[in-house]
From TrEMBL:
Entry GO MF terms: DNA binding; DNA-binding transcription factor activity
Chain ranges of the HTH iclR-type domain: 10-71
Pfam family of the protein (one): HTH_IclR
Signal peptide as annotated in the record: none
Natural source organism: Nocardioides soli
Taxonomic lineage of the native organism: Bacteria, Bacillati, Actinomycetota, Actinomycetes, Propionibacteriales
UniProt GO BP: negative regulation of DNA-templated transcription
InterPro entries registered for this protein in UniProt: GAF-like_dom_sf, HTH_MetabolicPath_Reg, Tscrpt_reg_IclR_C, Tscrpt_reg_IclR_N, WH-like_DNA-bd_sf, WH_DNA-bd_sf
PROSITE patterns documented for this protein: HTH_ICLR, ICLR_ED
Protein name: DNA-binding IclR family transcriptional regulator
Superkingdom of source: Bacteria
UniProt keyword terms in alphabetical order: DNA-binding, Transcription, Transcription regulation
UniProt keyword Cell inner membrane present: no
Domain IclR-ED: from-to ranges: 72-251
SMART domains associated with the record: HTH_ICLR
Length: 264
């Protein structure tokens, strides 16, 4: 699992962070009742924390008794150096990939034992996908996640397997043996092809992005409708763009502007 306040000591600050974790887990909006049920905090504590966070600007109150993360949290997130530098450097490559495919384009990075989506480019008529900027999903159930497992530190795979492989759809890989076989194929071909493993009706092709080390620091993916996407045709342009972004990251790291460790 990604870093969380749920297992930390029960202090006032940690209770506040548990509320923020809850609000950030799904788009919302959330009510004090759902927040209390998720965090295990008493109603009075939830209301007190929400009032403080609203005053600070980290949470917005919308309508009657409904809450969501506020713009102050977005400003803090946008200031994270590693994510900002990676996103700024990658965006032109993502735009090129979108222009070449006119499909949903993602960039994702490892976040604890899950995959975090940093950027997404889409069109009005693109297929609907479960992923979105700032959302985390299980690594074993997504194309970018499987790429990061295949080309990441072996200890990451061991943690993911140890934590279990929950089923998101009937096509989700849920056995260790099947996952290891899929990752071996990804290492052989350089891409991960996923069909309806995270959401019904979608398929994706994903490829790794490297900085200076041997482990992938990010993954690029193209997503389309499962019944029409040509994954074989998309594999080569995706590899080409991922390789070009990798070279740009490596060049940036060599001049000291991009510490690779900041993405791990």
């Amino acid at each position: 699992m990604p870093p969380s306040a749920s297992s930390a000591p029960d202090t006032a600050i940690m209770r506040c962070l548990r509320v923020l974790d809850c609000l950030g887990a799904t788009p919302g909006p959330h009510t004090p009742t759902t927040i209390g049920a998720t965090t295990g905090l008493p109603p009075a504590t939830v209301h007190r924390i929400l009032a403080t966070l609203v005053e600070w600007g980290g949470v917005e109150r919308i309508g009657r008794g409904r809450y969501r993360l506020g713009l102050h949290m977005w400003r803090l997130g946008a200031a994270v150096p590693s994510a900002r530098v990676l996103r700024d450097l990658a965006l032109p490559y993502l735009e090129d990939l979108y222009e070449a495919t006119h499909l949903v384009v993602h960039m994702a990075v490892p976040d604890g034992d899950e995959v975090l989506y940093l950027e997404k480019i889409t069109a009005r008529r693109s297929v609907r996908v479960t992923s979105g900027v700032g959302r985390r999903l299980p690594m074993h159930a997504t194309g970018p996640g499987k790429v990061l497992l295949a080309f990441g530190d072996p200890s990451l795979l061991e943690r993911v397997v140890e934590n279990g492989l929950p089923r998101l759809t009937p096509a989700t890989i849920t056995s260790e043996r099947a996952l290891r076989a899929a990752l071996a194929d990804i290492r052989r071909t350089g891409v991960a092809i996923s069909r309806e493993e995270a959401s019904a009706g979608t398929a994706s092709v994903a490829a790794p992005v490297f900085a200076e080390g041997r482990d992938a620091v990010a993954a690029l993916a193209v997503v389309g409708a499962a019944d029409s996407i040509d994954t074989a045709r998309l594999a080569q342009p995706l590899r080409t763009v991922a390789h070009a972004l990798s070279r740009a990251l490596q060049a940036r790291a060599q001049v000291g502007g991009l510490p690779p460790a900041s993405f791990n």
